[in-house]
Design goal:
By secondary structure, the protein is an all-alpha fold. The chain contains 13 helices and no strands.
Length: 288
């Protein structure tokens, strides 16, 4: 801890000692780095803007990450800004670099704040970094307004779904919990949290039963279809057993009959199948 504090102080002290740059000198340094890859020019340009990096990094201390790491990530963003800066556009380097510094720090926070990956889209990222501020502002004005109403208002402001706000609020409200940790910290022999997770998938015996029943019904259907004529079999196959079923009109054109006649034959074939299934398996009427 003492070493980290000392590192932070040395970085801040060095940043404070670095001289400010006038606009003309800033442009000259940027041009030297851009055209000749002059590392001395790059060092002077970035050193003069480390104050900006530290100021932006300090805004993200509430996420519980070391300030020294935030500053280092901000410095990476500063170097990226220097590599992309175009001095001929007549924009101050500090204005241009601010976006890159903030983006680098935000990416670092998202990668390290939680072991659960989140904020992958631009809307989720904006929600992550603005939720606390918006919630605090609305809480002051809310009075007796409930949390759901606050989530709804934040969702409207951010252009996201209310469920997304509620989920992000839940994530920001508490630390990560290991599923392998015991339910009671005082009792290491207690059941793990993962032992109480509900599995929505069917049980193995239910899966086996479904497979057996499906195959049994398929066998019944194949045997029952022996009572159908060749034309009835073709119509049922085209209308009921294909992924892309044929229309009555297209099937009538193939068979040289009207679509109404196709519908009649299809209905009669289904009735014959049902009758045969009930005759051979009267105790399975619920499945027919």
């Amino acid at each position: 801890m003492a070493r980290a504090i000392g590192a932070n102080r040395s970085i801040v002290d060095a940043a404070m000692r670095a001289p400010y740059l006038e606009r003309d000198e800033e442009v000259r340094l940027a041009q030297r780095w851009r055209s000749r890859k002059d590392r001395t020019a790059l060092h002077r340009l970035t050193a003069a803007h480390m104050r900006l990096v530290i100021a932006i990094a300090a805004r993200f201390r509430s996420y519980g990450l070391p300030l020294n790491d935030l500053i280092q990530e901000g410095h990476v963003g500063l170097l990226e800004a220097a590599a992309r800066f175009e001095p001929e556009r007549e924009v101050r380097f500090s204005t241009y670099a601010t976006w890159w510094i903030r983006a680098a720090i935000q990416d670092y926070v998202l990668r390290n704040w939680s072991i659960v990956r989140g904020g992958t889209s631009s809307s989720q990222k904006a929600l992550f970094f603005n939720l606390r501020k918006l919630r605090a502002r609305l809480d002051r004005k809310a009075g007796d307004r409930d949390r759901h109403d606050i989530h709804r208002r934040i969702a409207a402001l951010m252009g996201v779904k209310t469920d997304s706000v509620a989920m992000m609020d839940s994530r920001l409200s508490g630390p990560d919990l290991s599923l392998n940790a015991p339910l009671r910290e005082s009792d290491r022999s207690a059941d793990d949290r993962q032992d109480f997770l509900v599995d929505a998938l069917p049980l193995p015996d239910e899966t086996a039963e479904a497979v057996i029943d499906t195959e049994r019904r398929a066998q019944w259907l194949r045997k029952a279809m022996s009572v159908l004529s060749e034309r009835e079999l073709r119509i049922l196959h085209e209308r009921r057993l294909r992924e892309e079923t044929a229309t009555l009109e297209s099937l009538g054109e193939k068979l040289g009959i009207s679509k109404e006649r196709v519908r009649q034959i299809e209905g009669r074939a289904l009735e014959k199948l049902k009758h045969e299934l009930l005759r051979t398996h009267p105790d399975r009427a619920a499945f027919v």
